[in-house]
């Protein structure tokens, strides 16, 4: 059991406009134990945020790293997250529907269980969480979506 010494739960984090060193330092200060990368393809033009470099930087701070491509938002659905309120609602609905798959449901269950023991951060690019698919993931975990079936 946690014993109250370290934070537990699942939170979302975006690295837009951040330097990797500052970002990792902030995660460590928050008490994040594991970063779960929910980008479909874990590559970035931002230095240090592609899979290998990010995993290395996180490991240096004692933070684990997992890539969960089964929770990525397909490229064809991404524009809606940056669009009007109607486009955002539609994109969120499309993405929510994708979470009904077996692999996605299993991943959500595993993340929720991990979050019961330690602090897990779902990672994607977007700074505004309301404009990112990780917000839908956090809602699904909070609602127990992964436990249906």
Question: Structurally, how many domains make up the residues?
Answer: 1
Oligomeric nature of the chains? single chain
Order of helices and strands: EHEHEHHHEH
β-strand amount: 5-15%
Strands of the biggest beta sheet: in what spatial order?
A: 1-4-2-3
From the 3D structure, determine the CATH topology: Protein-Tyrosine Phosphatase, Chain A
Give the fraction of residues assigned to helices.
40-55%
Q: Average pLDDT value?
A: 93
Query: Roughly how many Å is the radius of gyration?
Result: 15 Å
Please provide the count of β strands. Answer: 4
Q: Classify the secondary structure makeup into a structural class.
A: alpha/beta
Anisotropy-based shape = globular
pLDDT < 50 runs, ≥5 residues: none
Describe this structure in words.
The structure is a single chain. The protein is α/β, with parallel strands linked by helices. It has one domain (about 20-145): Protein-Tyrosine Phosphatase, Chain A. It is about 40% helix and about 15% strand. The protein has six helices and four strands. It has a four-stranded parallel β-sheet, sandwiched between helices. The longest helix has 14 residues, at about 85-100. The protein is globular, with a radius of gyration of 15 Å. The model has no long low-confidence stretch (mean pLDDT about 95).
What key attributes describe this structure?
alpha/beta, Protein-Tyrosine Phosphatase, Chain A, four-stranded parallel β-sheet, about 150 residues
